[in-house]
Specification:
2 domains, Leucine Aminopeptidase, subunit E, domain 1, 15 helices, Aminopeptidase, alpha/beta
Length: 488
Amino acid sequence: MEITVKSARRYVDEIPAPLTVAGYWGGELTEEAKKLDTKSGGQLSRVLDELKYKGEFGETLLLPLGEQFVLLFGLGRKRGVSLETVRRAGAKLVHEITRLGFKEAVTETFLAEKFGKKQASYALAEGALLGAYEFKKYKSDPEIKKLRLWLARSSGPAVDRAEIVAEAVNYARDLVNEPPNVLTPAELGERAKELAREAGLEVEVWDERQIQQAGMGAFYGVAQGSVNPPRFIQLTYRPQAKPSRVVALVGKGMTFDTGGYSLKPSESMLTMKCDMAGAAAVLGTMRAIARLQPDCEVRAYVAAAENMISGTAYRVSDVLKSLSGKTVEVLNTDAEGRLTLADAITYADREGAESIIELSTLTGACVIALGDKVAGMFSTDTRLGREVQEAAERAGEKVWPMPLEEEYREMIVSNTADLKNVHGRSRHGGAIVAGLFLAEFTEKPLVHLDIAGPAYSERPHPLGPAGGVGFGVRTLVELLSPSPLNEE
């Protein structure tokens, strides 16, 4: 769907459009809907009484009103309503409007009286832009619907910011949804270069020779089994003035993961094109940061590779020397992400990052613990962890703090090398052990977000279709460039 969201200062009944959307909340018409009802001589009220319309969330009722149509949109009960209600209403609304065949509509800004005009405008616009996302690049004859949606009495700056953030999320979704024969590590490097040219970012992409020369033995060990060579991607945003702080973003960039010789079952490979969702989130964030221009310096690092099987692939019992100098015994080749991330985190540390935020589809254990809607957050620094969690709450993404239990560290100590990449045959505490492993490669404040659950959806979800979700972009943008809209 091609959608344009426009802000307007006028009331909903003052903007000419073939369709006017009004809300029904808590069993009664909203103030904007009441104005339409008065203008129609009580026609809306009479129809509602006759049809016993309840206005459950997402329930719609299309009515003719003079030369226009009015679409009543149910917002559900007042109890438990939140900005997420508004965001999901925006996503659902755009599909209902296009299903009815309208190409232009005006809607009231739902629940602005409760949450304030700025926040309600932002949530509604963001929901509409995210909900309209489709990935039809490889369809032979795709049907692309178009919609122009006016938000009555909305905040222009809020709508503008929503457009920037939603575009960044959808960019990340596009990357995740690309087939792995297209989005190889080299192609991901090219996409990063293109992003840098468009956004005015600094960029450097290393090839396999440079990766080896740098001493990234853990990263290259994973990558060496594929005919598609690895790439190490570096993007930098610098503010015009002296930066308030220097933050590194590290994203897992496995463009396809077979599991290597610890081979995955075939059904588990069906979603493995999403194993670079952390990288996609980091690149999407950089796209938004370049436009929002915060006062901090932001550096992004992606170790892009494929985990394949061949005569040159790494094996169980191999020992790899990481960039940090620490050696790692490989006990499971399907625990490859933490090896690539180890070198990326070390590099980010050495380049002068004051804090590091890392995102990865790292463990099935985290999905078992938190399901497919919530990311696990592991932090070595209480203050940074709190910052990330609060940013996620403001952004509308679900992040839950998890422990880095030091008593479990002995589970990754190897008899052969310094460390081992998994804790043996036991599956207990798998997500925690993975976080402890990553923490071995920096002394700087580190937040590890395990997004294995919410990064990819195998069925449609409230803010989009099946496929890449773009999880993490909204949280990182809110962390690095806090929205002024929170201050009414």
